[in-house]
Structure formats: structure tokens, C-alpha cells
Amino acid sequence: MVWKQLTEVKQLDEIAQASHEKAQLIFKHSTRCSISSTALNRFERAWDEAETPAYYLDLIAYRTISNEIAEKFGIEHQSPQVLVIDKGVCTYSATHWDISVEDIKPELHK
User: With 80 as the cut, is the pLDDT of residue 1 above it?
Assistant: First the structure.
């Protein structure tokens, strides 16, 4: 899996804009949390949507970006958390053990 690193707040506007062409995915991950590490590993093993832009956010290094995501897309911060951004809004969110590639795929192809 090839992740685009989410390291700057300005990328959120780029993600929102690009989502008008194709749904975008954000995976918020805490590098200090074993549940987050397990969820990330499960996600990466099951992911086969190579065409879908997928962004990875290291919450420890970039917590301010997570806070901005919560504000911009109206989604309460969680970790781990997967968001699908489509047409500029968050259309799907899952956290912890509810993160499932099979549940996410239909959200990407609406």
C-alpha cells in the first residue's frame, strides 16, 4: 500500500477539492497505541484499492491536523479512525475495531 503522508493543514483543502473528482481516504493512526497499530495492520493487509487516494496521518507528530480534520469535516477525533471524504464532506467514518475494508469499499464507489 502506498500512503500519501498528511503533514500539513493545507492538504485538507486539497483533499476536499480532489474529493469532487474521486473519493479520498484518511487513516488517522496513533503510533503509541497497540489497538491503532493492529487496526492499521489489518487495514493494510486487506486494502486492494490502489486507485483510491489514501492519506496517512501520524497523530502523535501532527495532532493539530487531526484537530483541524475534526473541525473541517465535523467528525469527532478518534484514534484509530478512517474517514472517506467525498464531494468535500466526510461521508463515512469508522474507529477502532469497526474499521473494515469491506465496509469502506462501497463508500468509495458511490
Answer: no
